[in-house]
Amino acid sequence: MERISQWVSSQELPADLIVRIADSVFPLHKAVMVPKCGYIRRAVTAASQDPAATVELDLSALPGGADAFEKAARYCYGANFEITARNAAALRCAAAFLDMQQHPADGGGLARRVDEFLAQAGLRTLPSAVAVLRSCEALLPAAEELGVVRRSADAVALKICNEVMFPTRLPPGWWTAELAALSPESFQRVLTALRSRRAVPEVIATAATAYAELVLADVLAEPRDREEHRALLEPVVAVLPSPADVPLPAGFLCRLLHAAVATEASAKTCRDLELRVAAVLDQATAGDLFSVALDGAGERVTNADTVRRVIAAFIERHASAADGRRRRASLSGAEHGSSSAMEKVARLVDEVAAEMATEEALPVSKFVGVAGAVPKDARATHDCLYRAVDVYLKAHPALDEIEREKVCSVMDPLRLSHQARLHASQNRRLPLQAVLSALYYDQLKLRSAAAAGDANGGWDDDGQSAAGRARAQARAEASLARENEALRAELAQMRAYLSGMQMQHSKGSGSRAASPAPAAKKASFLGSMSRTLSRLNPFKGGWAKDTSSIADGREGRTGANAMHAVKPKRRRFSIG
Question: Are the C-beta atoms of 215 and 251 separated by less than 8 Å?
Answer without folding.
Answer: no
